[in-house]
Design goal:
six-stranded antiparallel β-sheet; 24% helix
Length: 719
Amino acid sequence: MDGKVFRVLIISFLFGSLYLGVKAQDRVSVDSVANGIYRLSVGVPEQFTPYKFSPEKPNLAALNGLSKGELPFLLDEITMEVTDRGGRVRVPLQDDEKLYGFGLQIGSFQQRGLKKKPVVNDHPMNTLGYTHAPQPFYVSSKGYGILVNTLRYTTFYCGTHTEKQSQRKTIVATGEVKATTEELYANKKAGSYVYVDIPNCSGVEIFVFKASSMKEVVQKYNLLAGGGCLPPMWGLGFKYRTKTDFTQDGVIRVQNYFRKKQIPCDVIGLEPGWHTAAYSCSYVWNKERYPNHRAMLDTLRNNHYKVNLWEHAYVHPTSPLWKSLKDFSGDFLVWGGLVPDFSLPETRLRFSNYHKQLMHEGVSGFKLDECDNSDISVGNATWGFPEMSVFPSGMDGEQMHQALGMLYLRTLNDMYKNENLRTFQDYRSSGMFASSIPASLYSDIYGYHDYIEMICNSAFGGLLWSPEVRQSGSKAEFFRRLQLVLLSAHAVVDSWFLQNPPWLQYDRDKNNANIFLKDSLEMENITRTLVNHRMRLLPYLYNAFAHYRMEGIPPFRPLIMDFPNDNRLYDLSDQYMMGDNLMVAPLLDDSGKRTVYFPEGIWYNFNTHERYEGGQEYEVAINIDEMPLFVKEGTILPLADPLQYVANNSVFDITCYAFGNVDSSSSTLFEDDGISYDFERKKCYNWLTLKVKKGKGKCIRTGDYKSRRYNIVEWIFVK
């Protein structure tokens, strides 16, 4: 018997004897999944797990290129049991350890000292762990990760409790009286373990990720899921969603507006009004609003727009899909519609075969709404299917809630992938092992500070999160929201309840009454300037996503991932990295300035080229027509002349900005057709290496892609 397995069995037996209800016959097994990734299991394996539904196989070659990693404890110090209640896991914690993750968390960043229950929910609140993207997965500042491979509603006690046999010292009574409830209930002494409670299961399986840093843990997790995603290049452009009750004429008016005003736009999204029935969905065009939708789609395509359609998974009785999916759905309805069992290949095939007609008509992607669950933290949760639901596969409602968003997204993504087309979709619920699917999460919440923190939190679990701009309370608020949107994965302005673009009137009622701001022309000009900044960054962003795909490095991530030894960053969640070389510090209020903390090194203001010393804070002013961006010294930053849209044959003229001492630096650009999977299937791509030698810039192109998407026209040196 392997020595590690034997030690785990012994410790499990010793600790198991202290727990009531532990089954004495349980045995823990340990096996190596990949480089530095171990699977521990006990009891009878669950039939349905997140890993089972992973869309892609692990990228073992990339995983083997990473370190073997270390743990701050012995692997056999993790204890696992199955009791009459379900699964029970205990993982050691060191006193100075910090914890992150659990999916798209809202309201908390550093999670140690908290109780987290990552459960899918449409309106996350109160830092309970409820979220659009629940993940039973956390990452430690000590450079390891723990993933519980379950679809059950799992609770993590993150250093909050102590077992009686683990009490290390006597607590002295002081007679002190607390004057407030905050003092009374404060967790003064964090426990030395993370305890995991997985009810209603006959077995437990966990993955342990050993790595050299938090960043490498996340890399390994993403590569275990097959890698990150690489959206089509047009998906990184600007998206505008129209009002829900728009007609065909309204859509044509909007697309004309963008081209006439020369505001870049790649994608126009249509909201629920395009259906004959939306709640639940018919997936059939409404002929009253869209009398000739094919002609409209042709017009949009000819004017270089992609089209995104809103929908949700619940199938209306009038839908052509009702009959074919009735026997492949759960036993409860939502809004009178079927809930398809997307865990079944037959369900996915029937659903996607129907949607192919929309794809072939010119629809480039979908916005998948309400695939999470109604707000279960309040009493009026009525539209989600109940947890006692039964699905044909054998899954129950609890498991399906946790998996539905990812399985639904996978169904439509596979449809495009089978046609050798990349898409970039919006969806409102995810889970584990979804990093390879090109899509970004969104939410109906509108908290600005939450939006920033969610960008940081999403990185720990292979997720992309994108805020939206809708209405605003002031000119300054609108533009700082727009700046943030343009510096996230999916640049979206969502006018689903606005008749006109919000930069013409950010007040909802006045906008819908066609009452424009007195300075609407200035607002329009500033919007154009900001969107052009996004288009200038497109080659840089696309390159970051290529590294995400191949190496698992999140393109948007908190600073603590890149600077793990800086303890000032442990709780900093209002700044983040965009790629390897740019730091985003969004404006936090309407003042036009904020305090920015700069990690080690030298940094430059993207707009003014002002220089900052690392390890310090500076008060920085950002104009409303600028980007709150800062460039790391040694960066060779490729900035493109902005295009109005990304066509299949677009060529970007690029100016390379070299910041500070770049003699030993280099940057890359990833070059391919930007729309297909030929970069993987045929290895049809190039890498462009940008470097400086003897004070002159140089570009070296290697690879098998014959066309050129990038043309280096100038080098500028910033000292």
